[in-house]
Write a structure and sequence with these properties.
alpha+beta, Aldehyde Oxidoreductase, domain 4, about 30% helix, about 25% strand, globular, disordered N terminus, binds dioxosulfidomolybdenum(VI) ion
């Protein structure tokens, strides 16, 4: 690339600009298009009969009376589902035991809410009425042998003398999205168009093709606007498959929408792991060994990404610290709904365990928690796929110390305690490695001189279109308004991974950057002879290219090219993972009478690498923080005898606007060497670091001999800890 081109890239400043989201005009004004907005003439509606029993052998499933009900077109049970392949599971761990999806229960029930029959009728009400007449009988039967997958990281370490120990037990929680899951399938002979509320349209297409026995060209999956996903829409689910199957079989459009109850009962859940660790620490506060064990529940089957949390938790310990480690993890099939990735996916579990150990070590040795982190934080960040790529953890801690007035805060806290307050400060230093692998980008100069950018990183409300437009604008030196961005449709983007694992900007954005750079290079080669100068003399202006005293607009260049469009396809494979990091201080107080927790303030120094758009980063950090606060302090799926007790928003505590504390954000980026933009992930940071800081703040506030607390840190839990009244 010529010097003048490079300087344009450095100076136009589209990257790093606080641009309002181009999506907002549509999403905030009710003009979005979600799966539930789709309608088609002659559409049928699918409803799922779910088992009211948590476990047992099916002894009777009689659909006879229901089939004859008005409006009923078909009822499918397991015997009707002739599938060409099992569902796919990402085999992320060696020797993994993969338990695939049973879209409808065949012989055995393993969860209350498990799908047993699909009723397809001319209206939703007709389907629901018919559902009432299906007879399902289930006998108690012992649960079969449960499959386990065991993995290990690091090297076996000898027994520690007098280690510091920590245990963190996570509740199962709901990856709650504003838009419940939904699918709409439209058949045309042997081909299907399926609209899915998904974060992985290409994966959905591949899974549907394999299971239905259709070639890749026969299925088009479209993710229109997606109202949040958080991992809960990353893997094909039984209802998605049933909707596509029914449409193909009946040759009619079929629509399915989850109700809130459906999603509470039968969407995937997150977290749920129990974790134990011990760490040996010398008298100077240097950790000399870490041994940790995780047990992750999987539920009764494994969606595509089911092994991601266990793998992430295991592989990222000891997080930002330089400590010899011996980490093992077990993922086991359990009764109950499937457990899958949820924002953070194993990273929060690793961070909470590690940060708990750091605070406990500091307490034992009488060292300040800030200092013990300084003593153990990694200094030489090597560029290796399994360790942090870049960052400056000491600088994050230094900045946090300054921005919070840390030492004054400690003094203030001591004074408050003198006056009887129960208050605490909690630190967390965390890492957020984003996903690995590849992503695609397709960039075209259109006839009118504008650009079409199609990305494999789909959108789920996080501002993807805005960020991609800024990346292309920076590379081409054109206004972002000249760039249309599309994603989520396998007809536009046949290959792609999607929006997950904090990877969209790091990998998808880098793919787009490379596409734009390549397109510019090609444009210069075409333009040079037209301008009558050497390619090296062509410079980029805001409207096109110039050189040799003349100018050529993008539109003129497009016109010159005619049907031979300038078009670049890139499949970018990341050199390594980009590891974001951050340091957080949470200030909390606990009400002595009720155990109610007040998060007084959170201060957060974040290293997300190169920031494309500070507004989008802020949105991701705050959204993640809200879900992190939910997980730390209130969310929990409660079961009694296998029956869900928290199946509605009256019972399941989701954080609300009033639960959000003041959060002071400071950005301290170090560019990642893992990609050409220097960007890192940011979407999951809030779920990773915030709960760890809150847990430490709570333990700092409670009496020193308080045993490890299970999550969430609800008022009841804290009141029991304060009053010594365990469950
Ligand atoms: S938990 Mo995420 O959507 O990879």
């Amino acid at each position: 690339m010529t010097g003048s081109v490079r300087s344009a890239l450095q100076t136009n400043g589209w990257i790093g600009r606080k641009m309002p989201r181009r999506e907002d005009a549509r999403l905030l004004r009710g003009r979005g298009l979600f799966v539930d907005d789709l309608q088609a003439e002659g559409s049928l509606f699918l409803e799922v009969l779910r088992s009211p029993y948590p476990a047992g052998e099916i002894t009777l499933l009689d659909t006879g009376a229901a089939v004859g009900m008005p409006g009923v077109v078909a009822i499918f049970t397991a015997k009707d589902l002739v599938l060409c392949a099992q569902s796919a599971v990402n085999p992320l761990l060696p020797n993994a035991n993969l338990i695939t999806m049973e879209p409808l229960a065949d012989h055995r029930i393993s969860a209350a809410g498990q799908a047993v029959a699909a009723i397809i009728a001319t209206s939703r009400d007709a389907a629901r009425d018919a559902m009432e007449l299906i007879v399902l009988e289930v006998d108690d039967a012992p649960a079969p042998q449960q499959a386990k997958t065991i993995a290990h990281w690091g090297k076996r370490l000898p027994a520690f003398e007098h280690p510091v120990t920590a245990a963190v037990d996570h509740a199962l929680i709901a990856p709650f999205a504003m838009e419940p899951r939904a699918a709409f399938a439209m058949p045309d002979g042997d081909t299907l168009t399926v609209w899915l509320s998904t974060q992985t349209p290409q994966r959905g297409r591949d899974d549907l093709c394999a299971m239905l026995g259709l070639p890749r060209e026969a299925v088009r999956v479209i993710a229109p606007d997606v109202g949040g996903a958080f991992g809960g829409k990353a893997s094909l689910m039984p209802e998605d498959l049933l909707t596509a199957f029914a449409a193909l079989k009946l040759q009619r459009p079929v629509k399915w929408n989850a109700s809130r109850s459906d999603d509470f009962l039968a969407a995937t859940q997150g977290r749920g792991a129990s974790s134990r660790a011990e760490m040996s620490v010398d008298h100077t506060g240097h950790a000399t060994g870490l041994r940790a064990e995780f047990t992750f529940p999987l539920g009764h089957w494994m969606p595509y990404s089911a092994l991601s949390p266990v793998r992430n938790a295991g592989r990222i310990l000891p997080g930002p610290y330089d400590i010899p480690f011996d980490v093992s993890a077990t993922a086991e099939i359990t009764e109950g709904p499937a457990v899958n990735i949820y924002r953070g996916a194993g990273r929060p579990e690793a961070a909470m365990l590690m940060e708990s150990l750091m605070d406990k070590s500091a307490r034992r040795l009488g060292i300040d928690p800030m200092d013990i982190r300084r003593r153990n934080a990694m200094r030489n960040l090597s560029h290796h796929p399994d360790t942090p790529c870049s960052g400056n953890y000491l600088a994050l801690l230094d900045r946090l110390e300054v921005e919070t007035g840390y030492h004054d805060l400690r003094a203030q806290q001591a004074a408050r305690r003198e006056n009887g307050a129960i208050c605490g400060l909690g630190l967390a230093l965390y890492v957020e490695p984003c996903g690995q692998g590849w992503e695609t980008a397709h960039l075209t100069l259109r006839e009118d001189g504008t650009f079409l950018a199609a990305t494999g990183s789909s959108a789920q409300g996080q501002g993807r279109e805005t960020a991609m437009a800024q990346i292309v604008a920076q590379a081409l030196n054109v206004d972002p308004s000249q760039i249309a961005v599309v994603a989520g449709d396998t007809a536009d983007v046949p290959d792609g991974i999607g929006a997950l694992a904090s990877r969209s900007t790091a990998i998808g954005g880098s793919a787009m950057w490379r596409a734009a750079s390549a397109l510019l290079g090609r444009a210069i080669d075409v333009a040079a002879p037209l301008l009558g100068c050497a390619a090296s003399a062509v410079t980029v202006t805001q409207t096109g290219l110039c050189g040799g005293g003349s100018a050529l607009s993008w539109a003129a260049l497009a016109k010159h090219l005619g049907p031979d469009r300038l078009c670049v396809d890139i499949r970018h494979t990341a050199d390594a993972e980009a590891w974001a990091s951050g340091a957080i201080l949470a200030e909390i107080a606990i009400d002595a009478d009720t155990g109610a927790l007040t998060i007084e303030r959170i201060t957060w120094i974040d290293d997300a690498g190169t920031v494309i758009n500070p507004l989008l980063v802020q949105g991701q950090l705050l959204g993640g923080a809200a879900q992190g606060i939910g997980a730390a302090t209130m969310e929990r799926m409660v079961y009694a005898d296998g029956q869900l007790q928290t199946g509605s928003l009256m019972d399941y505590a989701l954080p609300r606007a009033t639960d959000m504390p003041p959060i002071h954000l400071f950005s301290q980026p170090t560019p990642s060497p893992a990609n050409p933009l220097g960007v890192k992930g940011v979407g999951e940071a809030g779920c990773i670091g915030i709960p760890a800081a809150i847990l430490n703040a709570v333990m700092d506030a409670l009496p020193a001999d308080t045993p490890d607390l299970s999550l969430p840190l609800s008022s009841e839990n804290l009141w029991r800890a304060l009053t010594g009244k365990p469950l």
